[in-house]
Amino acid sequence: MRITRLLLSCILIWSTAQAEIAKLPEPYQSLAELARAAPPEFTADALLRIIELGRLTDQGARHDLIEEAFRIASSAKFPARMVGLPGTTTDTASGALSRAYDLRLDALSLESRAVRDMLQLDPANSRELFGQIARPMLNQTTCDDALVYDLAEFYQALGAVVNSTFTAKERAKDQHVNFLYDYLGQATSPLEIAPLAQVIQGASVTTLQRQGLWARLGGLLESVQPDDRSFSASLSALNALSVPELQSSLEKYRQKSHGCESDSSNATPNATRNGAAPPKKAGTPKLDSYWQSTSSQQLLVPGKKLRFDRNNVPLTDADRSTPEWQQQAIDYLNQLNGWTADQENSEADYYHEKCTVLTTLIELVPRGSESDRVLADYVDFVSNSGLYQQSPAEWFLEPWALLDRFQTNATMRAKILDAYQQSGNPVLSLEVALEKTLYRQRSVGRSP
């Protein structure tokens, strides 16, 4: 009997959930169902895009979708956003990752976004959701690393929660200030200092309360134990802070810390004279550059001939319409078909390099059957890449970039969307549905 009651209870809960979902008007019901078939980062992003467009007027439905997006976001493959160091993002693996992170499909960015969306509907629940965010473990980085953490989205949400979710009664008891103190106490990386300073600068607090917050942040700056890469990466933002209350702590921070040789130009000139250890002497950061294998390099010269003449002048549309050029393009495609992932450093390197080549061909090949063939090859390659499971956001960077490349070409953009829709890939199908349903009057559906 107990098992029967439990079973009935589960059925009732499931039926209630389905009834709630069914309350969504079209086209949002269909979009939500498509979203739930995609990896979690895309599900959360799509549900939030539905909300943010502002056309869904049912407050209860908006509330439920935001909560659903928040819960699902925690399962995203990327835990927190990272950014590439200046000068490291061109034709490198770290550059591709940095651009993928720019899509804000990491768990922390998506959760923070859901908190801000909830803020407009239910401030108290927004604060509750923010408190449920599990801060990711920020791994120690070394001078070899070309990517560093960027938690700006999280701290922007913190500032909004501090300023907009506490009642007058709560503020009278300093609860908003204590809430901020708690998060000051949780910071562990020097890369969190500058965004925390921006939160304090924008906080709706009294002068006395702000002085206390500056004192706490100064103590954090003096006590934090930075790794060399994080120290070097933090200097630019910290040096730009115009906060008199932090200058003494900042000077102590500069003196006690190390850095990386490649970033030594960012260090204060007085650091070594005042006792800081000199920057480490290593050829860093270490980059995984593209186009280094024999196979990929063999594609560069004939690929360049498809784009430029002997004088390095770009070929015209007429030049690329001749039988000779078209035969060169066919020969190049045949050569491309012999290129495999095991000839590259990793599947990710191969994926980004081949997508770059195919994207260039899609641009160059005159519209017609050959152009359609190249686009079909591109979509087939993308749809069957193992990177889709390994690193969904990094995988999506390429099909998103192709759409963005043709944002002003309505005819070609429509062709790409049709090809994505026919691919059978859940994410590509979802992107098409979002584009056509939510953004049919806009040239671009997503902006990183």
Q: Tell me the major beta sheet.
A: 2 strands, antiparallel
Strand percentage, roughly?
Answer: under 5%
How many separate helices?
22
> Which structural class is indicated by helix and strand composition?
mainly alpha
User: Which range best describes the helical content: under 10%, 10-25%, 25-40%, 40-55%, 55-70% or over 70%?
Assistant: 55-70%
* Low-confidence runs: 1-22, 264-282, 441-445
Mean pLDDT across every amino acid position: 88
Q: Using the alpha-carbon principal axes, give the shape.
A: globular
Separation of the first and last Cα atoms: 54 Å
* Strand elements, count: 2
* Total domain units: 2
Adjacency order of strands in the biggest sheet: 1-2
Cα Rg: 26 Å
Topology:
Layout: H1 2-22, H2 28-36, H3 40-53, H4 59-73, E1 82-84, H5 93-101, H6 107-119, H7 123-132, E2 147-149, H8 152-164, H9 168-172, H10 175-186, H11 193-202, H12 207-223, H13 228-239, H14 247-256, H15 294-305, H16 323-337, H17 347-364, H18 369-383, H19 387-390, H20 392-405, H21 410-421, H22 426-438
Antiparallel strand pairs: 1-2
Short synopsis of the structure:
The protein is mainly alpha-helical. The chain has helices at 2-22, 28-36, 40-53, 59-73, 93-101, 107-119, 123-132, 152-164, 168-172, 175-186, 193-202, 207-223, 228-239, 247-256, 294-305, 323-337, 347-364, 369-383, 387-390, 392-405, 410-421, 426-438, and strands at 82-84, 147-149. The chain starts with a helix and ends in a 10-residue tail after the last helix.
